[in-house]
Amino acid sequence: MQGCFFGFVKLTMILGIISVIAAFTPACSTTPKAEDQAKVLGNSREAMDWFTSNVSGLDSQLNRSVGYIVYPGVGQYGLLIGGGKFGQGVVYNNQNQQVGWAYLNAASAGLQVGGQGFKMLVVFQNASTMEQFEENKLTGDVGATIVAADSGKAGAASFTNGVAVYQGAQTGLMAGASVGLDYMRFEAVNP
Fold first, then answer.
1. CA torsion angle for 173, 176, 178, 183 (degrees, to 10)?
2. Which helix (H) or strand (E) holds 114?
3. What residues in the chain have per-residue pLDDT under 70?
4. How many helices (H) and strands (E) does the chain have?
């Protein structure tokens, strides 16, 4: 009986932690603080260099696209029956000019344990898809092509619903590399 009680207490504590994370994570701003913007921009350029070095055909795909988002560092966490992904990114047009900021905040359910980080690239195939993103109306899920530098080059991902997604390992990746597009938010750069 005592074991059941302590199991219940542990489960309650874990659910409490998940609730706190979920409550405070959505409050993050899409645009980084002014003092952090240069660092996010620099990190996004480094991440983009990494992707173009490790994905064959990516330069060609980018030249045919209308724009892309670089998330230089996405955190992914999992605690038993809940978890999520979060990160800030930079939005570029197909001329490699910054047009905005992006924020990813996605909760998930299901059995998962761990916490890891990765970089992510989201490429927009056409203007209507990018416009939906810029209006914060993009929906659906897209499976990500996982790129690992130590295992050779990956090929360019296929577009699904006008979007191609790449995830680059920083350590190991958690299983289930799927991105919920409706959890990405956009904010234009102030002129």
1. -80
2. strand 98-124
3. 1-29, 76-85, 106-116, 144-145, 148-153, 170-182, 191
4. 4, 9
How many Cα atoms sit within 13 Å of 46 on the Cβ side? 11
pTM of this structure: 0.73
Place of tokens 């620099």: 42
Distance between first and last Cα of the chain: 64
The number of folded domains in the chain is 1
Lookup: tokens for 147: 């790129």
- Domain with 84 in it: 2-188
Tokens representing 180?
């919920």
- Using CA atoms, how far residue 15 sits from 10, 12, 26, 146, in Å, is 9, 5, 17, 30
Contact 94, 65 (CB under 8 A): yes
